[in-house]
Amino acid sequence: MIVSASRRTDIPAFYFDWFCERLRDGYVDVVNPFNRKQVSRISLKPEAVDCIVFWTKDPLPMIEGLDKLSAYPYYVQISITPYGKDIEANLRPKADIIKTVQELSRRLDRERVVWRYDPILLNEAYPIGFHLEWFKDTLEKLAPYVERCIISFIDLYAKARKNTQGLNIHELSEAEMDELAAGLSQIAKGSGVTLQTCSEEIDLDRYGIGHGACIDGSLVERITGKPIKASKAKSQRPLCNCVESFDIGAYDTCIHGCRYCYANASAEKAWQGFHEHNPRASVLTGELTGDEKITVHEG
């Protein structure tokens, strides 16, 4: 079983101590976001977990706790993008986050640290040329520390469209994607960093950019040294190449304040979820009330 921690929120940045408590207890409860009475109890015993995939924008809180993960195979995906406080309100300075990623890679190694340049959005403040210049500067700092960079172009889902009002952001045209892909590929050439896309229909093979996967079965096999039995994820978008995993996060709990985020209905809802977090609870936010149907997953 692969555990995703998490597409729905930033567990390493905000809930790492809670996560380690769940590891000690050997399970985590995940509430169905569409029906609170349906709860999945996911085993976190080492023998049940093939790999943990972490998603974060800032791995600093987990750095000093890596010893607590010693019984588990895992890798960490870090989203590092060029936006300022107008887009990502509550992040530390990117230069500091990059230094943290470098330190994480020194402790783990390059294959277990993945850079996500996601999402790529365009407006007057962040035109294509800005992205290419920022990517060049950042790649120079990260190339010795990561093997791959996963790129994704913004999808303006309903929540993102509402939360980005006034920013004049648009979904990219194929011509804009082509121009960006050509530029990013040229910059990355010879760096030792492989570029891949995430859930993108456009074919960028001509630029040496293939279709990637965030929950990557082949990477899990490299890290664990053994084959895994995991089929393509059925619950994700049709273009997603990820393998099946159990996501243990909860929506409306990440307080980074990213305007484009699909996982928060609003900043206010996210802060509410954050304040309702109990570090001793089996669920990430709130409490179980006793009337839930709990389905146990042992791997």
Structural class: alpha/beta
Separation, N- and C-terminal Cα atoms: 5 Å
Strand content: 15-25%
Helix content: 25-40%
Give the integer mean of the pLDDT values: 95
User: Poorly predicted ranges (pLDDT <50, ≥5 residues)?
Assistant: none
Individual helix count? 9
Care to count the β-strands?
11
Strand line-up across the major sheet:
9-8-7-6-5-4-1-10
Overall radius of gyration: 19 Å
Largest sheet: 8 strands, parallel
Q: Could you give the order of the helices and strands? A: EHHEEEHEHEHEHHEEHEHE
The shape is: globular
Task: Give the arrangement of secondary structure elements.
Layout (H helix, E strand, L loop, with lengths): L1 E4 L5 H4 L1 H10 L1 E6 L2 E9 L7 E6 L3 H4 L10 E6 L14 H15 L4 E8 L7 H15 L5 E6 L4 H6 L10 H15 L5 E4 L12 E2 L5 H8 L21 E2 L19 H9 L17 E5 L2
Parallel strand pairs: 1-4, 1-10, 3-11, 4-5, 5-6, 6-7, 7-8, 8-9
Antiparallel strand pairs: 2-3
Helix pairs in contact: 5-7
What does this protein look like?
There is one protein chain. With 299 residues, the protein is of the alpha/beta class. Helix content is 29%, strand content 19%. It is built from 9 helices and 11 strands. An 8-stranded parallel sheet has the order 9-8-7-6-5-4-1-10. Strands 2-3-11 form a 3-stranded mixed sheet. Strand 2 (27-32) and strand 3 (35-43) form a beta hairpin. The protein is globular, with a radius of gyration of 19 Å. The chain starts with a strand and ends with a strand. The mean pLDDT is 95.
